[in-house]
Design a protein that fits this description.
Length: about 240
């Protein structure tokens, strides 16, 4: 898992311990299925799927989008629904997606978000300059800093992580246009050669949905809007 993706996982500054939604879910999952889950954090998001493919990790759990093109490499046990959104300083004149044409938007490298921005740009910037993409380390605080110093006009990131970060940030930002929800799901990645493990994880998470511990964890982190009723496999459409 990536060690700096709040509220899913991040290092507590006071205790130096990992905490977040995925940490709590994994700990509870271990209790439900009777397996001790050990955490192996990485600073590189791009290493998550390869780590599972090569057997360096049995499961990847780090707010990873279940995308059809990724399903050819690993299986996904889907446990959270999410969207994306643009944010800009509150004083900005940006108002909607079309107002971003010709502007620079910062997002995370190694993610699907640069491609998504390009698709949005193709849809709304039909008569003018396209939205320019600045890719940096996939950490929202880094992106917002790029906006603050003027290297970018807005940031583009997941709704859940963005809302959490802005609730903790003393600087004032606003949503530019509507948030985008198109069936995106976060999934725990599992080696395709381990269908038994995949099914155990799915059943364990479903048991957590039914016993209420799943919803309690999401509520703890203010992310009830991302809850799903059914833990599915490879149902992502992003």
């Amino acid at each position: 898992m990536v060690n700096n993706y709040p509220p899913f996982e991040f290092v507590d500054e006071k205790t130096s311990e990992l905490q977040g939604i995925d940490i709590d879910l994994a700990k509870r999952l271990g209790e439900v299925i009777g397996i001790e889950i050990k955490f192996n954090p990485t600073s590189e998001f791009t290493q998550l799927v390869p780590s599972v493919q090569t057997g360096r990790a049995d499961m990847g759990l780090s707010g990873t989008l279940d995308k059809p093109e990724r399903q050819g490499s690993v299986d996904f046990v889907d446990y959270f629904k999410t969207g994306t959104q643009f944010v800009a300083p509150e004083a900005s004149e940006l108002t909607d997606h079309a107002s971003l044409c010709g502007k620079t938007v910062v997002t995370g490298s190694g993610t699907s978000y640069p491609d998504e921005i390009e698709k949005i740009s193709a849809e709304v910037c039909t008569g003018g300059d396209k939205i320019k993409v600045l890719s940096v380390q996939p950490v929202l605080s880094v992106m917002l800093q790029q906006v603050k110093i003027g290297r970018a006009d807005a940031a583009f990131w997941a709704t859940d992580s963005t809302n959490y970060e802005l609730s903790k940030n003393s600087d004032k930002f606003k949503l530019v246009g509507e948030a985008i929800f198109t069936g995106k799901l976060y999934g725990a990645s599992v080696n395709k050669d381990l269908p038994e493990l995949r099914d155990v994880i799915q059943k364990g998470l479903q048991a957590m949905v039914e016993d209420g511990s799943y919803s309690e964890i999401l509520k703890k982190w203010g992310q009830e809007a991302g809850a799903v009723d059914q833990i599915s496999i490879n149902k992502g459409v992003a």
